[in-house]
Fold this sequence. Notes:
The chain has about 250 residues and is α/β, with parallel strands linked by helices. It has one domain: pyruvate-formate lyase- activating enzyme (Alpha-Beta Horseshoe), CATH 3.80.30. Helix content is about 25%, strand content about 15%. It has helices at about 30-35, 60-65, 85-100, 110-125, 145-150, 195-205, 240-245, and strands spanning about 10-15, 15-20, 55, 70-75, 105-110, 130-135, 155-160, 180, 210-215. The protein has a 7-stranded parallel β-sheet.
Amino acid sequence: MAERSKIEWTDATWNPVTGCTKITSGCDHCYAERFAERFRGVSGHPFENGFDLTLRPKRLAEPLRWKAPRMIFVNSMSDLFHKDLPWPYIDRVFATMEAADWHIFQVLTKRSSIMRDYLRSRYGSGIVPSHIWCGVSVEDERSASRVEHLRQAPANVRFLSAEPLLGPVGSIHLADIAWVIAGGESGPRARPMDISWVRQLRDSCASQKIPFFFKQWGGFRPKAGGRELDGRTWDEFPDHIRQRALI
Protein backbone atom coordinates (compact mmCIF):
# COMPACT_ATOMS: atom_id res chain seq x y z
CA MET A 1 0.00 0.00 0.00
CA ALA A 2 1.18 3.51 -0.71
CA GLU A 3 0.76 5.57 2.45
CA ARG A 4 0.14 8.68 0.39
CA SER A 5 -1.33 9.09 -3.07
CA LYS A 6 -1.02 12.00 -5.48
CA ILE A 7 -4.55 11.25 -6.70
CA GLU A 8 -6.65 14.12 -5.39
CA TRP A 9 -9.78 12.11 -4.60
CA THR A 10 -8.16 9.44 -2.43
CA ASP A 11 -5.60 9.14 0.36
CA ALA A 12 -3.77 5.93 -0.50
CA THR A 13 -3.59 3.09 -3.01
CA TRP A 14 -3.61 -0.67 -2.45
CA ASN A 15 -2.68 -3.10 -5.21
CA PRO A 16 -3.33 -6.76 -4.35
CA VAL A 17 -3.33 -7.24 -8.14
CA THR A 18 -1.25 -5.48 -10.79
CA GLY A 19 -1.35 -5.57 -14.57
CA CYS A 20 -4.26 -5.52 -16.98
CA THR A 21 -5.32 -5.68 -20.65
CA LYS A 22 -7.02 -3.05 -22.79
CA ILE A 23 -10.72 -3.28 -23.54
CA THR A 24 -11.83 0.24 -24.47
CA SER A 25 -10.59 3.55 -25.88
CA GLY A 26 -10.16 4.80 -22.32
CA CYS A 27 -7.36 2.22 -21.94
CA ASP A 28 -5.36 3.33 -24.99
CA HIS A 29 -2.81 5.47 -23.14
CA CYS A 30 -2.96 3.74 -19.74
CA TYR A 31 -0.75 5.49 -17.19
CA ALA A 32 -0.33 2.28 -15.18
CA GLU A 33 0.87 0.31 -18.18
CA ARG A 34 3.29 3.10 -19.14
CA PHE A 35 4.76 3.07 -15.64
CA ALA A 36 4.98 -0.71 -15.24
CA GLU A 37 6.51 -1.44 -18.64
CA ARG A 38 9.48 0.80 -17.85
CA PHE A 39 10.69 -1.93 -15.48
CA ARG A 40 10.00 -5.05 -17.55
CA GLY A 41 13.01 -7.33 -17.32
CA VAL A 42 14.54 -5.54 -14.33
CA SER A 43 15.40 -8.45 -12.05
CA GLY A 44 13.88 -8.18 -8.57
CA HIS A 45 11.74 -5.15 -9.37
CA PRO A 46 8.00 -5.40 -8.46
CA PHE A 47 7.25 -4.84 -12.15
CA GLU A 48 9.87 -7.24 -13.49
CA ASN A 49 7.05 -8.75 -15.59
CA GLY A 50 5.84 -5.35 -16.77
CA PHE A 51 2.09 -4.98 -16.92
CA ASP A 52 1.27 -8.69 -17.09
CA LEU A 53 -1.68 -9.57 -14.85
CA THR A 54 -0.12 -10.58 -11.51
CA LEU A 55 -1.67 -11.63 -8.19
CA ARG A 56 0.04 -10.13 -5.12
CA PRO A 57 -1.18 -12.27 -2.17
CA LYS A 58 1.53 -10.89 0.15
CA ARG A 59 -0.25 -7.53 -0.06
CA LEU A 60 -3.68 -8.80 0.91
CA ALA A 61 -3.36 -7.95 4.61
CA GLU A 62 -1.84 -4.48 4.19
CA PRO A 63 -4.99 -2.44 5.01
CA LEU A 64 -5.46 -4.41 8.23
CA ARG A 65 -2.08 -3.14 9.44
CA TRP A 66 -2.86 0.49 8.67
CA LYS A 67 -4.72 1.69 11.74
CA ALA A 68 -5.46 5.33 10.82
CA PRO A 69 -8.63 5.61 8.69
CA ARG A 70 -7.99 6.36 5.02
CA MET A 71 -9.76 6.47 1.71
CA ILE A 72 -8.05 3.70 -0.27
CA PHE A 73 -8.17 3.36 -4.06
CA VAL A 74 -8.14 -0.39 -4.74
CA ASN A 75 -6.05 -1.60 -7.69
CA SER A 76 -4.82 1.69 -9.09
CA MET A 77 -2.49 -0.51 -11.19
CA SER A 78 -5.07 -3.05 -12.38
CA ASP A 79 -8.78 -3.88 -12.52
CA LEU A 80 -10.15 -6.09 -9.75
CA PHE A 81 -12.77 -7.50 -12.12
CA HIS A 82 -10.48 -8.53 -14.97
CA LYS A 83 -11.96 -11.61 -16.64
CA ASP A 84 -8.84 -13.67 -15.88
CA LEU A 85 -8.89 -13.00 -12.14
CA PRO A 86 -10.22 -16.02 -10.22
CA TRP A 87 -13.22 -15.18 -8.06
CA PRO A 88 -11.74 -16.97 -5.01
CA TYR A 89 -8.91 -14.43 -5.10
CA ILE A 90 -11.38 -11.54 -5.41
CA ASP A 91 -13.12 -13.08 -2.38
CA ARG A 92 -9.89 -12.66 -0.43
CA VAL A 93 -9.66 -9.00 -1.43
CA PHE A 94 -13.24 -8.40 -0.32
CA ALA A 95 -12.65 -10.28 2.93
CA THR A 96 -9.86 -7.84 3.77
CA MET A 97 -12.02 -4.84 2.88
CA GLU A 98 -14.91 -6.14 4.96
CA ALA A 99 -12.64 -6.68 7.96
CA ALA A 100 -10.88 -3.30 7.69
CA ASP A 101 -14.09 -1.34 8.09
CA TRP A 102 -12.41 1.76 9.55
CA HIS A 103 -11.22 2.61 6.02
CA ILE A 104 -13.20 3.62 2.95
CA PHE A 105 -12.31 1.47 -0.07
CA GLN A 106 -12.86 2.84 -3.58
CA VAL A 107 -13.19 0.02 -6.11
CA LEU A 108 -13.24 1.23 -9.72
CA THR A 109 -13.69 -0.91 -12.85
CA LYS A 110 -14.33 -0.77 -16.58
CA ARG A 111 -15.65 -4.35 -16.44
CA SER A 112 -18.99 -3.34 -15.00
CA SER A 113 -21.00 -6.46 -15.82
CA ILE A 114 -18.44 -8.70 -14.10
CA MET A 115 -18.52 -6.50 -11.01
CA ARG A 116 -22.32 -6.61 -10.95
CA ASP A 117 -22.37 -10.40 -11.26
CA TYR A 118 -19.67 -10.87 -8.63
CA LEU A 119 -21.40 -8.61 -6.10
CA ARG A 120 -24.72 -10.36 -6.66
CA SER A 121 -23.01 -13.70 -6.08
CA ARG A 122 -21.15 -12.60 -2.95
CA TYR A 123 -23.92 -10.70 -1.22
CA GLY A 124 -27.02 -12.51 -2.47
CA SER A 125 -30.05 -10.68 -1.12
CA GLY A 126 -27.76 -8.46 0.97
CA ILE A 127 -25.76 -5.37 0.08
CA VAL A 128 -22.13 -4.30 -0.07
CA PRO A 129 -21.02 -2.66 3.21
CA SER A 130 -21.18 1.13 3.08
CA HIS A 131 -17.41 1.58 3.53
CA ILE A 132 -16.77 -0.24 0.22
CA TRP A 133 -17.60 2.14 -2.61
CA CYS A 134 -18.19 0.60 -6.04
CA GLY A 135 -17.53 2.64 -9.18
CA VAL A 136 -17.27 2.41 -12.94
CA SER A 137 -15.24 4.37 -15.49
CA VAL A 138 -17.20 6.21 -18.19
CA GLU A 139 -15.12 7.96 -20.86
CA ASP A 140 -17.85 8.86 -23.37
CA GLU A 141 -21.47 8.18 -24.32
CA ARG A 142 -20.66 4.75 -25.75
CA SER A 143 -19.48 3.56 -22.35
CA ALA A 144 -22.49 4.90 -20.45
CA SER A 145 -24.05 1.41 -20.33
CA ARG A 146 -21.64 0.71 -17.47
CA VAL A 147 -23.70 3.05 -15.32
CA GLU A 148 -26.71 0.78 -15.67
CA HIS A 149 -24.62 -2.27 -14.74
CA LEU A 150 -23.47 -0.39 -11.65
CA ARG A 151 -27.03 0.49 -10.77
CA GLN A 152 -27.96 -3.20 -11.05
CA ALA A 153 -25.26 -4.17 -8.52
CA PRO A 154 -26.18 -4.48 -4.82
CA ALA A 155 -23.83 -1.64 -3.92
CA ASN A 156 -24.45 0.73 -1.04
CA VAL A 157 -22.33 3.60 -2.39
CA ARG A 158 -21.93 3.94 -6.17
CA PHE A 159 -19.67 6.39 -7.99
CA LEU A 160 -18.54 7.28 -11.54
CA SER A 161 -15.12 8.25 -12.84
CA ALA A 162 -15.20 10.10 -16.16
CA GLU A 163 -11.43 10.04 -16.59
CA PRO A 164 -10.05 10.27 -19.12
CA LEU A 165 -13.11 12.07 -20.45
CA LEU A 166 -12.84 11.54 -24.22
CA GLY A 167 -16.24 12.77 -25.38
CA PRO A 168 -19.63 13.92 -24.16
CA VAL A 169 -21.39 11.39 -21.95
CA GLY A 170 -24.80 12.56 -23.10
CA SER A 171 -27.86 12.89 -20.94
CA ILE A 172 -26.75 10.57 -18.18
CA HIS A 173 -29.20 9.46 -15.49
CA LEU A 174 -27.57 9.66 -12.07
CA ALA A 175 -30.22 8.09 -9.86
CA ASP A 176 -28.59 6.00 -7.11
CA ILE A 177 -25.15 7.47 -7.89
CA ALA A 178 -23.42 9.11 -4.91
CA TRP A 179 -20.46 10.83 -6.57
CA VAL A 180 -18.99 11.79 -9.97
CA ILE A 181 -15.30 12.41 -10.74
CA ALA A 182 -14.15 13.92 -14.04
CA GLY A 183 -10.73 14.62 -15.53
CA GLY A 184 -8.68 14.87 -18.68
CA GLU A 185 -6.03 12.47 -19.92
CA SER A 186 -2.36 12.98 -19.09
CA GLY A 187 0.85 11.67 -20.59
CA PRO A 188 2.92 12.02 -23.78
CA ARG A 189 -0.05 11.33 -26.10
CA ALA A 190 -2.81 12.90 -24.03
CA ARG A 191 -6.02 13.48 -25.96
CA PRO A 192 -7.62 16.90 -25.39
CA MET A 193 -10.82 17.32 -23.40
CA ASP A 194 -13.45 19.82 -24.52
CA ILE A 195 -14.77 22.13 -21.85
CA SER A 196 -18.35 21.51 -23.00
CA TRP A 197 -18.06 17.81 -22.06
CA VAL A 198 -17.04 18.68 -18.52
CA ARG A 199 -19.68 21.38 -18.13
CA GLN A 200 -22.39 19.00 -19.30
CA LEU A 201 -21.38 16.47 -16.66
CA ARG A 202 -21.04 19.08 -13.93
CA ASP A 203 -24.43 20.57 -14.78
CA SER A 204 -26.05 17.12 -14.75
CA CYS A 205 -24.62 16.61 -11.26
CA ALA A 206 -25.86 20.01 -10.10
CA SER A 207 -29.37 19.46 -11.41
CA GLN A 208 -29.54 16.01 -9.79
CA LYS A 209 -27.78 17.11 -6.57
CA ILE A 210 -24.80 14.79 -7.00
CA PRO A 211 -21.35 15.81 -5.61
CA PHE A 212 -18.95 16.62 -8.46
CA PHE A 213 -15.13 16.41 -8.29
CA PHE A 214 -13.03 17.86 -11.12
CA LYS A 215 -9.57 16.29 -10.94
CA GLN A 216 -7.59 17.89 -13.77
CA TRP A 217 -7.51 19.19 -17.35
CA GLY A 218 -4.59 16.90 -18.10
CA GLY A 219 -1.90 17.31 -20.71
CA PHE A 220 1.67 16.08 -20.97
CA ARG A 221 1.85 16.22 -17.18
CA PRO A 222 -1.22 15.59 -14.98
CA LYS A 223 -1.13 19.09 -13.44
CA ALA A 224 -0.18 20.90 -16.64
CA GLY A 225 -3.62 22.39 -17.22
CA GLY A 226 -4.55 22.97 -13.60
CA ARG A 227 -7.81 22.05 -11.90
CA GLU A 228 -10.04 25.08 -12.29
CA LEU A 229 -13.32 24.90 -14.18
CA ASP A 230 -15.13 28.19 -14.80
CA GLY A 231 -12.99 30.04 -12.30
CA ARG A 232 -13.03 27.63 -9.37
CA THR A 233 -12.08 24.16 -8.23
CA TRP A 234 -14.73 21.49 -7.73
CA ASP A 235 -13.82 19.32 -4.77
CA GLU A 236 -17.18 17.96 -3.73
CA PHE A 237 -17.34 14.62 -1.89
CA PRO A 238 -20.26 12.47 -0.76
CA ASP A 239 -21.61 13.22 2.73
CA HIS A 240 -20.46 9.75 3.82
CA ILE A 241 -16.90 11.08 4.09
CA ARG A 242 -17.85 14.06 6.22
CA GLN A 243 -19.85 11.83 8.50
CA ARG A 244 -16.76 9.68 9.12
CA ALA A 245 -14.56 12.80 9.55
CA LEU A 246 -12.17 11.70 6.83
CA ILE A 247 -11.80 15.17 5.34
